[in-house]
């Protein structure tokens, strides 16, 4: 995804011509795949990370950035 987006941006940066067919294809692929990736990232952040944080709390792990401490 990053490579496709970078290529899309690089080929159009400072261009004065219309968007090319290849750029349209790259854009359409990005638009198609982005919701799938976003859904997976949300699942990881809301479910998997919560499980990991709960396990860290149970094991009295040291605090890590972004993790809310549980006051006892």
Task: Give the proportion of residues in helices.
Answer: 55-70%
Question: Stretches where pLDDT falls below 50 for ≥5 residues?
Answer: none
The portion of residues forming beta strands comes to under 5%
Q: What is the N-to-C order of secondary-structure elements (H for helix, E for strand)?
A: HH
Query: If you compute it from the alpha carbons, what radius of gyration comes out, rounded to the nearest whole angstrom?
Result: 20 Å
Sheet with the most strands, sense and barrel status:
none
Short note summarizing the structure:
By secondary structure, the protein is mainly alpha-helical. The chain has helices at residues 2-12, 21-58.
Characteristic key phrases:
2 helices, mainly alpha, 72 residues
Describe the structure.
The model has no long low-confidence stretch (mean pLDDT 86). 3% of the residues are buried. Helix 1 packs antiparallel against helix 2 (21-58). It is built from two helices and no strands. It is mainly alpha-helical and 72 residues long. It has one domain (2-58). 68% of the residues lie in helices and 0% in strands.
Fold topology:
Blueprint: H1 2-12, H2 21-58
Helix pairs in contact: 1-2
